[in-house]
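STRUCTURE REQUEST FORM
Protein name: ZIP Zinc transporter
Source organism: Halorientalis pallida
Requested output: structure tokens
Priority: standard
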Amino acid sequence: MLAVTAASLSGGPDPRLAAPLVVVLALAHALGGRGEVAAATSVRHWLSAGGGAAVAYVFVLVLPEVSDVALVVGERLGEAFLAEQLAYLVVLTGFVAFYGVEVTVAHRCGGDAESSAIVYRAHLAVFTVYSALVGYLLFHQERPGPANYVFYTVAMGLHFVVTDEGFHRHHGDAFDHRGRYLLVAGTLVGGVVGALTEIGPLHLALVFAFVAGSVVLNVLKEELPEAGQSRFLAFLGGAAVYAALVLLV
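Status: completed
Returned output:
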């Protein structure tokens, strides 16, 4: 879904499909993950279902596409050292980079106010870039057609909602009143850049690989909630419905 090969061969992005959906992704940041809403029991069921859908997205779509990306990179680099492994190394880099950010946030947010403010700004900046890349890749889908765009938007929109709830837990009102709108802007800017530019298949493959690694980390971190907060049947239902729709459509 995020991947690159057919998009590169089919003449680039289709803004007619992607443009309204990047606005939906931005609205997920603007409206989702608010603390007072997420605390409601009924909403916890929906968050768990959304987490299940996002996990299904990782295992049914992202991980298989990493293999396709590895083939693209291998073909482009030919006999270069670790050509086929490069894509997996970039996936690992995305995973480790975002894990490092989360560890730093967890260790520093309980410290003095100045240190916490610096960590908050850095945390927000990293996720603004992340949101921009997600918005960018919406315009560079592997398979054409509305269903592919919708599946991507649903999965990443739900992912944004749950990730924003994590921002609220760490940073409270500072995120609710101001920070979330930087993520909105990042998503829209990424979409605009995606609509207006097209990079080569190799570089696009590597961008996808980095985002794939970060998506895996963020999905597992945010969308597998603590046992006391999770609603397993809702989580299972979200995963099963999303996987079934992807496989059947």
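Reviewer notes: The CA atoms of residues 146 and 234 lie 26 Å apart. The two ends are 13 Å apart (CA to CA).
Form closed.
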